């Protein structure tokens, strides 16, 4: 597919106000929980990205009535027990979240289904979800003993487990909790590093009793979800690209409004603060389950830092753009404990290092992250996206400081999480304001 995009070297100030599209993690869950619930659910600010559209199409194949009107979605369901068995495969596209959370949901249902995704999904590890689900009694088979898609799920009555997570993963945690809501008994999930907690927050919103304290989450099985209203904040993972752009471009100021500021997701803000970025944060909405606010960032003199430990799950998807940020910081930035990057849409350690090197960055891969030395003047060139939206956007943002134009190959993959990304990049580079 020839869908490359060339960005002229910008090197001028960036200015403007943006409202980034809805949070991807929350958008997925709003559809899943609305489909599981009895009654009517409305969603505001839904992300019309390819991944979330895959989630909608899977539930429509299960017979759930889902109406999309712009970024508002209405879901009418009689609960899981009334889903119909699909005669077609459920296509989860490029979405790890859809694939893994649906495994947990479908394992406890009454139906048979087959989950298939794209080439990237076929390489991503599913054993981490299948293993705990099988301990609950799930009947799942797939390639290599159920490690990879396509995966066939024969729904059955599940039993609760007490499970200690071997990896910090909100997808694994959520799959177990969503199976747990349907199981006999109390399911306990223990995490040593806290991962995003949207599932816990949203289950509460749907009327489910759930306890979460000090990394121990417990849910009693047999509870019924009740339809509700979900307000989706802007995605901080999308905002991250413009936070970095504003910090590294000269004489710039970018304001991002209506962004989700859930503390399990704001590692990027911690990193920018530790690097010395000029930033203002206002939390202006705490009436919904998820805190929402505005972040303004200005061109900054940045210094290299060490990023690792329990900060990693709080910024895992932002690491590609953080690596770009580090190329413009004074000193050395070390990113460690981030081996999970190897099993995302692509191996993001290799992809980031290879592509930033093409622009002249001083960056080297390590077993669990990367080491970046800065500041370095970035050149231009032809970059690969590897079909990975976050790698594509990292390359595009590099053009705000590069000396020559940057071509991004297969840039259409960016619509997985940020369909109007290039429009927003144009807005901040030409002083317009979007409301
Ligand atoms: O639960 C979620 O919505 C997500 C969890 C993270 O994945 P892991 O659970 O694999 O860390 C993240 O990388 C992904 O983009 C979305
Ligand atoms: C890893 C990501 O998503 P998923 O796991 O849902 O494919 C991402 O959006 O960066």
TrEMBL record:
Cell location: Cytoplasm
Principal cellular location given in the protein's record: cytoplasm
Uppermost EC category: transferase
SUPFAM superfamilies given in the database record: EPT/RTPC-like
Gene Ontology molecular function terms on file: 3-phosphoshikimate 1-carboxyvinyltransferase activity
Pathway linked to the protein: Metabolic intermediate biosynthesis; chorismate biosynthesis; chorismate from D-erythrose 4-phosphate and phosphoenolpyruvate: step 6/7
EC number(s) per entry: 2.5.1.19
Binding locations of phosphoenolpyruvate: 24, 96, 124, 171, 348, 390
Limits of the Enolpyruvate transferase domain: 11-425
Catalytic residues (UniProt): 317 (proton acceptor)
Pfam families: EPSP_synthase
Catalysed reactions, semicolon-separated: 3-phosphoshikimate + phosphoenolpyruvate = 5-O-(1-carboxyvinyl)-3-phosphoshikimate + phosphate
Coiled-coil regions listed: none
Residue sites binding 3-phosphoshikimate per the record: 24-25, 29, 169, 171, 317, 344
InterPro entries: Enolpyruvate_Tfrase_dom (IPR001986), Enolpyruvate_Tfrase_sf (IPR036968), EPSP_synthase (IPR006264), EPSP_synthase_CS (IPR023193), RNA3'P_cycl/enolpyr_Trfase_a/b (IPR013792)
Subunit structure: Monomer.
Similarity annotation: Belongs to the EPSP synthase family.
HAMAP family: EPSP_synth
Annotated protein name in UniProt: 3-phosphoshikimate 1-carboxyvinyltransferase
Underlying gene: aroA
């Amino acid at each position: 597919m020839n869908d490359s995009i060339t960005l002229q070297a910008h090197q001028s100030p960036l200015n403007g106000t943006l409202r980034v599209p809805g949070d991807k993690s929350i958008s997925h869950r709003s559809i899943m929980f609305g489909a599981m619930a009895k009654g009517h659910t409305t969603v505001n600010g839904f992300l019309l990205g390819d991944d979330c559209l895959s989630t909608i199409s899977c539930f429509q194949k299960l017979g759930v009535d889902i109406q999309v009107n712009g970024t508002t979605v209405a879901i009418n369901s009689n609960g899981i027990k009334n889903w119909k068995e699909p005669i077609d495969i459920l296509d989860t596209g490029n979405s790890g979240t859809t694939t893994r959370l649906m495994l947990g949901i479908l394992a406890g249902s009454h139906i048979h289904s087959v989950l298939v995704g794209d080439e990237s999904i076929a390489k991503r590890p599913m054993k981490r979800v299948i293993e705990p689900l099988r301990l609950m009694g799930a009947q799942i088979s797939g390639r290599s003993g159920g490690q990879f898609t396509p995966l066939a799920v024969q729904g059955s009555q599940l039993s609760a487990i007490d499970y200690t997570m071997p990896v910090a993963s909100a997808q694994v945690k959520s799959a177990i909790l969503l199976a747990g809501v349907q199981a006999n008994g109390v399911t306990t999930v223990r995490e040593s590093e806290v991962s995003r907690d949207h599932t816990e927050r949203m289950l509460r919103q749907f009327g489910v009793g759930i306890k979460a304290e000090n990394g121990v989450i417990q849910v009693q099985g047999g509870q019924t979800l009740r339809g509700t209203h979900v307000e989706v904040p802007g995605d901080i993972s999308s905002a991250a690209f413009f936070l970095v752009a504003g910090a590294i471009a000269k004489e710039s100021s970018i304001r991002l409004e209506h962004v989700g500021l859930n503390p399990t997701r704001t590692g990027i803000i911690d990193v920018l603060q530790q690097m010395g970025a000029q930033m203002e944060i206002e939390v202006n909405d705490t009436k919904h389950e998820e805190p929402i606010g505005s972040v303004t960032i200005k061109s900054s003199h940045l210094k290299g830092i060490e990023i690792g430990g329990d900060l990693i799950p709080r910024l895992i998807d932002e690491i590609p753009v953080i690596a770009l940020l580090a190329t413009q910081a004074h000193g050395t930035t070390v990113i460690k404990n981030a081996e999970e990057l190897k099993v995302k849409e692509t191996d993001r350690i290799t992809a980031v290092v290879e592509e930033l090197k093409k622009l002249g960055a001083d960056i080297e891969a390590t077993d669990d992250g990367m080491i970046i030395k800065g500041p370095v003047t970035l050149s231009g060139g032809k970059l690969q996206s590897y079909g990975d939206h976050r790698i594509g956007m990292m390359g595009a943002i590099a053009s705000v400081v590069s000396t020559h134009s940057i071509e991004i190959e297969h840039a259409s993959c960016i619509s997985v999480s940020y369909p109007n990304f290039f429009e927003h990049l144009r807005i901040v580079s030409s002083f317009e304001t979007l409301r």
